[in-house]
Amino acid sequence: MSQTIDAFVAQLADVRTVGADGSPQDLYGLVDRLTAHFATTVGSVACRDGCITCCSSELPAVSSLEWRVIYRHLLTLPAETREGVRQMAELLRPLQPAMAHHRSLKLAQSDQLGRTPALQCPFLLNGGCSIYAARPLICRGYGYTGATLGEQTGFFGCSLASAHISAVAPKGLDLPLFDPYQAKLQALNDAEGPSTWAYLAQWLWAHLDGDGFVAEAIWAPDFAVASAPRAVPAPRRLPPNPRLRRGR
Ligand code: SF4
């Protein structure tokens, strides 16, 4: 397995794009192949179909480059989907002080005032990811890889996925590391412009224009202005959208 893992890492040298065409020369294409290979080769280690535990407990932070991919995709979605995302972003406004100070936000925790605001990614609608084809790298590697945090390397995923892999995976299984793919993303981002990382809700706030969205992705928004508190509109109930694909 480690030879296969090394072979995937070696392919990173040929990666030139993010979210462009799903080919092995595209970072998302390569990581999707890596996780698919891993899931089928070592047995049924994939997350349970339709599970949205990670989407409803943590809020991903993404770079400018990934945000551009997501935003272009968002603008192609049906109006009711965009409206659902906009409403979800507004429901996350109370978390703004916490987002300004933390890089890894557990939405299941109450904020410093003891409130528990909307507990999900703003792109999670009707039990599925509304931007599945353009979901960020972290959502593609989560649950299938290991990652380094400080001096330690551990499983990169939720406790459900960790327990599942521990139960079904062969003893001594090597997990592919997420680190080199994340480093490639950073390098591709830096090649285009200054690196800005922010939570998905912060990106959305920076792209709201009244009741809609601005026409193009902004590479480095002023998040302090975009995140300023404003009145949170009452959510409307949205009709189910059968075109949405299931989450991870
Ligand atoms: S898969 Fe989609 S809904 Fe889930 S955290 Fe990622 S972007 Fe959000």
> Roughly how many Å is the radius of gyration?
18 Å
How many separate helices?
10
Number of strands: 8
How many domains in all?
A: 1
Q: Low-confidence runs (pLDDT<50, min 5 residues)?
A: 104-117, 232-248
Bound molecules: iron/sulfur cluster
Distance N to C terminus:
24 Å
Main sheet: which strands, in order across? 1-6
Secondary structure layout plus pairing:
Elements: H1 2-11, H2 27-41, E1 61-63, H3 64-76, H4 79-91, H5 96-99, E2 124-125, E3 128-129, H6 137-141, E4 145-149, E5 152-156, H7 159-168, H8 179-192, E6 197-199, H9 200-206, E7 208-209, E8 212-213, H10 223-226
Antiparallel strand pairs: 1-6, 2-3, 4-5, 7-8
How is this structure best described in words?
With 248 residues, the chain is of the alpha+beta class. The protein has one domain (50-226). Helix content is 38%, strand content 10%. The protein has 10 helices and 8 strands. It has a two-stranded antiparallel ribbon. It has a two-stranded antiparallel sheet with strand order 2-3. A hairpin with a 2-residue loop joins strand 2 and strand 3 (128-129). The longest helix has 15 residues, at 27-41. The protein is globular and about 55 Å long. The model is unreliable at 104-117 and 232-248 (pLDDT under 50). Residues 55, 60, 121, 123-124, 129, 131, 135, 139, 247-248 line the site of iron/sulfur cluster.
The gist of it:
The protein is 38% helix and 10% strand. It is an alpha+beta fold and 248 residues long.
Task: List its salient traits.
248 residues, disordered C terminus, alpha+beta, two-stranded antiparallel ribbon, binds iron/sulfur cluster, 8 strands, single chain
